[in-house]
Design goal:
The chain is an alpha+beta fold and 349 residues long. It folds into two domains: 1-36, no CATH class; 38-309, B-lactam Antibiotic, Isopenicillin N Synthase, Chain (Jelly Rolls). Helix content is 36%, strand content 20%. It has 13 helices and 15 strands. The chain has helices at 2-15, 23-26, 28-32, 39-45, 67-81, 94-108, 112-116, 118-121, 152-156, 166-190, 197-201, 268-273, 324-338; strands spanning 50-51, 55-57, 84-88, 129-131, 146-151, 208-214, 222-227, 233-238, 244-248, 251-255, 262-266, 283-286, 293-300, 307-308, 322-323. The strands form three sheets. An eight-stranded mixed β-sheet has the order 2-3-11-8-13-6-5-4. Strands 1-10-9-12-7 form a five-stranded mixed β-sheet, with helices on one face. Strands 14-15 form a two-stranded antiparallel ribbon. Helix 5 (67-81) packs across helix 10 and helix 6 (94-108) crosses helix 10. It is globular, with a radius of gyration of 20 Å. The chain starts with a helix and ends in an 11-residue tail after the last helix. The mean pLDDT is 87. Its EC number is 1.14.11.13. Belongs to the iron/ascorbate-dependent oxidoreductase family. GA2OX subfamily.
C-alpha cells in the first residue's frame, strides 16, 4: 500500500487535476487501484539499451551505379534485418520540417475543449482528435498521448478558418508522400516485385498524417502501446526527446534520436506483399518524466480494394490473398473481441 500511496502522491503533485488532456481526472480510478508496478512490464517499457538505427544517405540515389545500387541494397537490407531504418539527406528541407513542428506545437497548445471539437475549431473531420485509451482497464493499457489523424484529402481542403496552417501541412505532407513513394518503389524492385504497384494503388484518400504529442508523465507508461503498423510503410519525423522503442532480436531496444534523419518502418502490408522479405516489427513510444515529446507520422496506405498477394519468385506464398479492406475489418474485429490486434497471423496460408 505504501507504493500505491507514493504513486498517487507523485501523480497528484506532477499533474494536478487540470492537466491537458485531463488524464488524471479521467483515469483516476486506474491510478487508485494500481498495485506496485510489475517488473516484467517495467523491463518492456524501460529498454536498457539504446541503439542507432541503420543510417542511409539518400544522396547516393542521385549518383550513377554502383553507388546508387549500393544505396538501394542498403535500404532493402535494413528493411529485412531491422524493419526500421533512418534516412539522411532525404530532400525535405530543415525549413519545411521546422514549420511543421511549429504548427504541431501551436495546435496541441489549444485548450482541450477546442481540440475535442475539432470539426468546429480545427476544421478537420470529426473524430480526428484522439487521446488516452477509453477501453483501458489498467495502467499497462493506457496510452499517455494525444493525436490528430488527418487524411491527406482533409489537408488539401483546409480553409482559412482552420487553426491549422494549410500551407505548412500541405508542403510537409506532399514532400513526405513523395519520399514514401520513392522508398516503396526501391523496396519493390529489390524484392523482385512490380515497382509501379504503389503508384497504381496508393491514394491520398487512404494515406494520412498522425500528429502526436506525449505529455510528461511522472511514472513510466506507454505513450503509444506496442503495435505494428497496418500500412505499407511509415515515415516518422520526431524531436530529440526520445521514446521510440522497437523489438530487435527478441528484445526491446530504445532508438537513438537523430536531428538530421527521418525514420522509416515497414508495415504489415509490405511484409505480406514482399512474402516476408521485409519485416513489420513491434514498436512503441514511452513517456518522459519531465519533457513533452512531439512526432508526426505519414502512413503510406493503399485503397481499400487493393489486393495484397504474397508471392516472390519460386518461394511459396506465406499469406493468402486479401484486400486492405478485409485486413482493416479483421483488425477492428479482433481489437473489439480480444482487446488487441492479431494482424498478419490471421492471413497465413
Amino acid at each position: 500500500m505504501v507504493e500505491t500511496h507514493n504513486l498517487m502522491t507523485n501523480i497528484n503533485q506532477s499533474l494536478g487535476m487540470d492537466s491537458d488532456p485531463p488524464f488524471h481526472e479521467t483515469y483516476k480510478t486506474l491510478f487508485a487501484v494500481t498495485k506496485p508496478l510489475n517488473n516484467d512490464w517495467l523491463a518492456a517499457v524501460m529498454a536498457v539499451e539504446e541503439l542507432e538505427l541503420p543510417s542511409i544517405d539518400l544522396t547516393w540515389l542521385s549518383l550513377e551505379s554502383p553507388e546508387k545500387e549500393r544505396c538501394k541494397n542498403d535500404i532493402a537490407r535494413a528493411a529485412n534485418e531491422w524493419g526500421f531504418f533512418q534516412v539522411v539527406n532525404h530532400g525535405i528541407s530543415r525549413d519545411v520540417l521546422e514549420k511543421m513542428r511549429d504548427e504541431q506545437v501551436k495546435v496541441f497548445k489549444q485548450p482541450f475543449q477546442h481540440k475535442c471539437r475539432e470539426d468546429k475549431f480545427m476544421n478537420v473531420s470529426a473524430g480526428s482528435y484522439r487521446w488516452g485509451t477509453p477501453t483501458a482497464t489498467c495502467l499497462r493499457q493506457l496510452s499517455w498521448s494525444e493525436a490528430f489523424h488527418i487524411p491527406m484529402t482533409d489537408i488539401s481542403s483546409l480553409g482559412d478558418t482552420s487553426i491549422f496552417s494549410s500551407s505548412s501541412l500541405h508542403q510537409f505532407a506532399t514532400e513526405v508522400a513523395s519520399l514514401a513513394q520513392k522508398l516503396a518503389e526501391i523496396l519493390a524492385e529489390k524484392s523482385g516485385k512490380k515497382s509501379t504497384f504503389f503508384q497504381e494503388n496508393s491514394l491520398p484518400s487512404t494515406c494520412y498524417l498522425r500528429l502526436n504529442r506525449y505529455p510528461p508523465c511522472p511514472i513510466p507508461l506507454f505513450g503509444l502501446m506496442p503495435h505494428t503498423d497496418s500500412d505499407f510503410l511509415t515515415v516518422l519525423y520526431q524531436d530529440q526527446v526520445g521514446g521510440l522503442q522497437l523489438v530487435k532480436d527478441g528484445k526491446w531496444v530504445a532508438v537513438k534520436p537523430n536531428p538530421e534523419a527521418l525514420f522509416i518502418n515497414i508495415g504489415d502490408l509490405f511484409q505480406a506483399w514482399s512474402n516476408d522479405c521485409y519485416k513489420s516489427v513491434q514498436h512503441c513510444a514511452v513517456t518522459n518524466p519531465t519533457k513533452e515529446r512531439f512526432s508526426v507520422a505519414y502512413f503510406f496506405c493503399p485503397s481499400y480494394d487493393t489486393v495484397i498477394e504474397s508471392c516472390s519468385g519460386d518461394k511459396p506464398s506465406v499469406y493468402r490473398r486479401f484486400s486492405f479492406k478485409e485486413y482493416r475489418q479483421q483488425v477492428q474485429e479482433d481489437v473489439q473481441n480480444y482487446g488487441y490486434k492479431i494482424g498478419l497471423p490471421r492471413f497465413l496460408v
